[in-house]
């Protein structure tokens, strides 16, 4: 990448971005989605969740993307996910949106359905494109029910309904989660999707549901709201979604009018999104940069790159190079809620923007991945309480606390 001077770098990361829908991001730094698990028992946003986003909203990021918001209370990624399927909690959802956007950040709600990797409700059978168990530990205990075409039509309506409610409550838009092995990602995967109807069998059929969901969501929220999609660059599994097919999906999403495509990768079986699955771009700091560069050569769609990015110089180099338009940071925001403001002021890693600490469990990469997520989730309550620089517990305490928390939430919500 061509060298850039300090002035150019500061302008690059701090420059605004006008998206095709007309929404303007005040800068190029985004808090990527992290699952907060801070909803009330009834699925509404809690005051703790609202305070958390108030802290992040003051932290300088131009874009805040929420963690999983479920489109159906019959299927949760984790206990205590926010659920938005009707207007009963719209006031609390509006308070959440205002808390994050009060200081100027653009608030976007990530909407999702877990499909065959649903944690709960425990008494319900999960659903998926095909009746095939995932191979991830803990998710392979229940065989999913294959979705009928009637079920699929209902799912499309649910995505659109949740998106409409989010925008009505004050969110600038939504992000449709089609990555990390959740339902729409499952339809894209030749491993999870072995259907023989119009939703399976060929690459065009496997991406059909995602494109239909995007079309219905756009119709629901209108042309002036932000419509984002989170997409795997690859599943990082043999016979899973590969980069060549993923690029074709991305180009189809561009034609469908998506305003911002976030690039990620992996799933519960191969968690590349947390850095525990090696990729050729990992040594260059960003996990999925090569894919972004190859897609940029064929697409003008605004791109957001998330995964492994930590240093200001690197962020500004890839922005100045034009490979991507937005830099997504996830776990660093669970350590320093104002990290975006520090980066915009010129702070560089490692002095004031350290990468997220890793919990050392050699030889246990998937477990390491789960524990890293739990470690950062444990910090969210501290940030909501006003802490600025957060340090969490070690691996054993994280494991014990995460197990107790998930059990308590499951018993109270399901």
UniProtKB/TrEMBL annotation:
One of its GO terms (molecular function) is oxidoreductase activity. InterPro entries: Aldolase_TIM, NADH_flavin_oxidoreductase, OxRdtase_FMN_N. Residues 23-342 form the NADH:flavin oxidoreductase/NADH oxidase N-terminal domain. Keywords: Flavoprotein, Oxidoreductase. It comes from the Bacteria. The keyword Oxidoreductase applies. This is NADH:flavin oxidoreductase/NADH oxidase family protein.
